[in-house]
Write a structure and sequence with these properties.
The chain is mainly alpha-helical. It has a two-stranded antiparallel ribbon with strand order 1-2. The longest helix has 29 residues. About 45% of the residues are buried.
Length: about 650
């Protein structure tokens, strides 16, 4: 039996194989399987190298897979065939644009527009290429031509607005961006561009509203939060600026520059420790973040850690020789590394949060901002990066004004001043703050011994220890603030953003806390060691110490203002303080003894506070002969008069 074997099939012709491979490659490319499509299209090209459609599809496949350099040659071959010339030139222009070869890109798009004058997308991409080449007039002409062909085109309004913006026609640009936003209501970038144009046109309120709309449409729009932060800084709304920067960081956790900006803002809000942590996080993300490194160096200089600041400044000086703030820090560091006295004066002149010339200029970090660039929507995955008005156009506030800041910022500023004062005074002795209590304790102990030895009768049988504590803690709270404020600090005016009044309030806060805690702790220790004593009335005690420090503040302001004009005032002040001291502690014996001096001594406001503080420590102590309203009125009057005299004498001294 014989079996018939069929003959082998005849090999198809090269044209058939090329057609089959082209069809399969086209299907794979439409499905997004670019690598498989490229392999089949290369096989087809080997069989039909002169086929323009194969070259065009191969170029599109290369372009879709991100291999723009390999797409150029087949697209050029396809452009030689008039059937594919317009489409091939468009894709060729897209490939050249992605390679940043803008002249070749413009030439290819121009060829596509010449072949198809009604192709709106090609005109827009040609206009964007002109813009990249610096030909703004050409970009304007192409955008106008696109709007004539397709009225209401979002991309045409976008390109036209960008070109007008860079011609500094901000009002006209805002009109085009508004039309872009109306044509593309879901595009947050349209409102962001509108916000920048309105701000440059002087419509700050409209700019803020537009940017808020952009952020509402896209809560993760980093540039929108950045823009709102800068607007808040212009208005000195530091809390709002901080909130927007935090939201920007949440949307872009790897943004080291954003963290450096937040750290600088925290320094402006007098939160050095928080700023240090944020700056360290920025350096962890990007060791080359120079703005964060500069901030760390400033904090080292202020804290007296010169050995750690020096290598950072040396490295930054080599990388950023144009930064003027580096020279400022070098001068501070050089002065601090010279003899001890000069170093202490330099440290005294340094701001508590590490602010340098950088902050006075508004902060270099906040001058750099991401642009609103994005890819245009060309066919076949094409398109080029179209420029947008950068956030660098938004200028920062020239100088922070703490007087118009939030109350919370003032609190953190005073806290930073107090902590800095402690670091400067006690950095070589951890227990130095205890020494602030040694003198008052010695004075109180000696007076208690003397009164006990003399068997002095205390009113209402108040224990002599409470009698002494109530008087002398009030006295020391007053005198320390008064003497500190009366001193004319020539270095204080050199600290940007910090006035002498800030130093006075910091001293007042510290003396209040110090003497208040000393009074309460002294009574507590007496109770621990067996004395049967009532616990102090803390609210009343705090009130009396606040009034004592306020008296010292007002008294010191008046003396300091007069001393600028009359140097002998300081010597008179020392003698007058002793008069206040002598007449403030023994009023009870004079008043109840019916001496004629009682009516004159009554005018010493400190004795009123001393008497009331004794009652706060011992409820049975009599205070019928004193009045709380009097020290309140005197303190308020002295502060007002002191501030007025201070301002007047400053102007006179300046003139």
């Amino acid at each position: 039996m014989t079996s018939s074997v069929p003959p082998p099939p005849r090999p198809p012709s090269s044209e058939a194989e090329a057609a089959a491979a082209l069809a399969a490659g086209r299907r794979l490319l439409a499905a997004g399987r670019c690598d498989e499509a490229i392999r089949l299209l290369l096989e087809a090209a080997r069989h039909a190298a002169a086929n323009a459609e194969i070259a065009y599809q191969l170029g599109c496949a290369y372009l879709a897979s991100g291999r723009e350099a390999e797409a150029v040659e087949p697209l050029r071959r396809a452009a030689e065939d008039e059937r594919y010339a317009a489409a091939a030139n468009f894709q060729l222009g897209t490939a050249e644009a992605k390679l940043s070869r803008w002249s070749a890109s413009a030439a290819a798009f121009a060829s596509a527009v010449r072949l198809r004058p009604d192709w709106v997308t090609a005109r827009l991409q040609l206009g964007a290429a002109f813009f990249r080449l610096g030909d703004v007039r050409g970009a304007l002409e192409e955008a106008q031509a696109a709007l004539r062909l397709e009225a209401g085109s979002a991309e045409a309004h976008r390109l036209y607005g960008v070109a007008l913006y860079h011609c500094r026609s901000f009002a006209e640009a805002a009109s085009e961006f508004k039309a872009w936003a109306e044509a593309a209501p879901s595009d947050a970038l349209a409102d962001l561009a509108l916000a920048r144009a309105l701000l440059m046109a002087g419509a700050r309120a409209g700019a803020k509203d537009a940017c808020r709309r952009a952020v509402a449409r896209d809560p993760n729009l980093v540039r929108g939060h950045f823009f709102l932060a800068r607007l808040a800084l212009r208005e000195n709304r530091l809390g709002q600026a901080q909130a927007h920067l935090k939201r920007a960081i949440a949307a872009r956790p790897q943004g080291a520059s954003l963290r450096a900006m937040l750290a600088r803002l925290l320094l402006r809000r007098s939160r050095p420790e928080a700023a240090r942590k944020v700056a360290q996080a920025a350096l962890t993300l990007d060791p080359d973040c120079d703005s964060a490194a500069l901030l760390i160096a400033e904090l080292h200089v202020v804290d007296g850690e010169f050995g750690q600041a020096w290598p950072i400044l040396r490295r930054l000086a080599g990388r950023r020789p144009d930064w003027a703030e580096l020279r400022t820090l070098d001068e501070q560091l050089g002065a601090a590394r010279s003899p001890r006295r000069q170093g202490s004066e330099s440290a005294a002149a340094a701001p508590p949060w590490g602010e340098s010339a950088r902050q006075r200029g508004g902060g270099r970090q906040l001058e750099e901002a991401p642009s609103v660039a994005r890819e245009g929507g060309g066919a076949g995955g094409g398109g080029i990066v179209s420029p947008g008005p950068g956030l660098g156009a938004v200028a920062m506030s020239a100088s922070p004004t703490f007087g118009r800041g939030d109350f919370l910022d003032q609190f953190f500023l005073l806290r930073a001043l107090v902590l800095r004062q402690l670091r400067l005074h006690y950095r070589e002795n951890r227990f130095g703050f205890v020494l602030e209590w040694v003198r008052p304790i010695i004075v109180m102990v000696l007076h208690a011994i003397v009164f006990n030895a003399l068997h002095k009768r205390m009113p209402s049988k108040i224990p002599v220890e409470l009698f002494v504590i109530g008087s002398f803690t009030i006295w020391f709270a007053f005198v320390h603030v008064a003497r500190g404020c009366a001193h004319v600090r020539r270095q204080a005016a050199a600290i940007p953003g910090v006035s002498e009044l800030h130093h006075d309030l910091a001293r007042m806060s510290w003396e209040f806390l110090s003497m208040f805690s000393l009074a309460v702790l002294s009574v507590y220790l007496l109770m621990v060691f067996g004395f049967r004593l009532p616990f102090p009335n803390l609210p009343k005690t705090a009130l009396y110490f606040v009034l004592a420090t306020a008296l010292g503040l007002g008294f010191g302001l008046v003396v300091r203002a007069l001393a600028r004009r009359f140097p002998a005032t300081e010597m008179i002040n020392k003698n007058f303080i002793w008069i206040l001291y002598i007449t403030s502690g023994h009023y009870y014996s004079i008043a109840y003894g019916r001496h004629g001096l009682a009516a004159y001594i009554w005018w010493n406001p400190l004795l009123h506070l001393s008497e009331f503080e004794r009652q706060a420590l011992y409820p049975g102590y009599p205070t019928e002969l004193v009045a709380l309203w009097y020290p309140v009125v005197v303190a308020a009057g002295l502060i007002i008069i002191g501030l007025v005299l201070d301002k007047c004498t400053r102007h006179l001294a300046r003139d």
